[in-house]
Amino acid sequence: MFFRTRDRVPPAPPGLDSEAGVLDRLRGGQRTVIGSRTRVRGSLRGEGAVLICGTLKGDILVQGGLTIAPGATVEARVEVERARVAGRIEGEVRARDSVRVDGTGTIDGGLASPVVDLRPGSTLRGRASILGAGRRGGALPKA
After folding, report:
1. Strand, coil or helix: what is 135?
2. Spatial separation of the C-alpha atoms in residues 68 and 16, rounded to whole Å
3. Where are the domains of the chain?
4. Burial (CB count within 10 angstroms: exposed 0-12, middle 13-18, buried 19+), residue 112
5. In whole angstroms, what is the distance from residue 50 CA to residue 36 CA?
6. How, if at all, do strands 55-63 and 111-113 pair?
7. pTM attached to this predicted model
8. CA 5 to the chain's CA centroid
9. Could you read off the pLDDT of 50-95 as tens digits, one per residue?
10. How far apart are CA 119 and CA 58, in angstroms?
C-alpha cells in the first residue's frame, strides 16, 4: 500500500542540499517523491514538484518542477515547466521554462527549452533546441 505523510518530508539527496527548499516553494508545497529504492513503470502526470531518486520508465507530464537526483535513472518522454538533472535521463526532455544539468547529470536524447544550463561535467548526447523568447512559458512545439 501507498501512504502519504504530510508532516515528514524526506531529506534532499546528496548534491541537492542547497535546493532543499525549492520543493516547499513550488506549487504551495505539493510534491511527489520517488525514493531511491523505488522503481516505477508507466505515466507520471500531475501538478507540483517531483523529485526522483529511484528509477522511472514511461512518461512524465508535470505542471511544475522535476528534479532527478544523483544516481536516479529515468527512461521517459519528459514535459515539465522546469527540470534539474543530477542523475540520468534517456529520452526527450521538453521544458517550458528551463533545464539545468548538473555536473553529475546526463541526458541521452533530445532537449528543448528556452533556457539550458549545462554545468561543467554534465553530459548531453543528442540534439538541443533553444526555444526563442516568444515561446517561453507557452506550449511546446511538437517534435
Report:
1. helix
2. 10
3. 31-125
4. buried
5. 13
6. unpaired
7. 0.74
8. 22
9. 999 999 999 999 999 999 999 999 999 999 999 999 999 999 999 9
10. 26
